[in-house]
What we know:
With 196 residues, the protein is of the alpha+beta class. The protein has seven helices and four strands; from the N terminus they run H-H-E-E-H-H-H-E-H-E-H. It has helices at residues 16-47, 49-60, 94-100, 103-120, 128-136, 155-162, 187-190; strands spanning 73-74, 80-92, 146-149, 170-179. Strands 1, 2, 3 and 4 form a four-stranded antiparallel β-sheet that branches.
Amino acid sequence: xxxDPPRFGAKRMxxxxxxxxxxxxxxxxxxxxxxxxxxxLWYLQVLNTTEYQETxxxxxxxxxxxxxxxxxxxxxxxxLLVTNRVTTAVMANPREIEAAFDDDETAQMLKALAVQVNRxxxxxxxxxxxxxxxxxxxxxxxxxxxxxxxxxxxxLLVYVGERGDQFPxxxxxxTTVRHYPYGETAAHVLGYVGAV
Length: 196
C-alpha cells in the first residue's frame, strides 16, 4: 500500500517533540512577560521613588497655620478675669480673591457671602460694605488672611467648602478670641487684643 504524498501546506506531526517545542515557546513568552512586569515595578519602586513620594505628599498634605491660644489670667483668689473662647469665623485671602475676580464680580461674590453669613450669624448682621472694608484693611499683612465675620454657624463651613468656585479664597475656620467676663474692668492692667 502506497502512502499518499503530503498535501501542500500540511505539517508533519512528530508527537512528543512538537509538544515540547510548544511548551518551551509558552514558557519563554510567560517568563518574558514576568520579566517585563518585574522590570517596570523595579523602575517605579526603586528608580522613581522620590518623585512619586513627593507627588503623593503634595496631593494629600496641606499646611494649616493655627494660632496658639493665649493664656488665661486669674486674680489672686483664682477667679477667671480673661480667657479664650472658640468661635467659628469666615476668613478670606484678599490676594486669591483679586486673582479670581474683577471688581464687579468681587462685589457680587461679597453680596452672596453676606447673605449666607447673615443667615447663619449667631450675633450681629454683616453688610457688604463691612466685608469690603475688611478686605481693604491695610492693618493686615500682605499674605495674612482677613477675618470677615465672627460667631457664624459651623454649617457655613460646609456651604462655603462645597462652593469653592463661587467663593475663591474664602473659607470658614475655628479660631480663638479673647473673652473678658468682667467687661472693661481692669483693662489698664489686663490689656486688650486688637489690630496693630
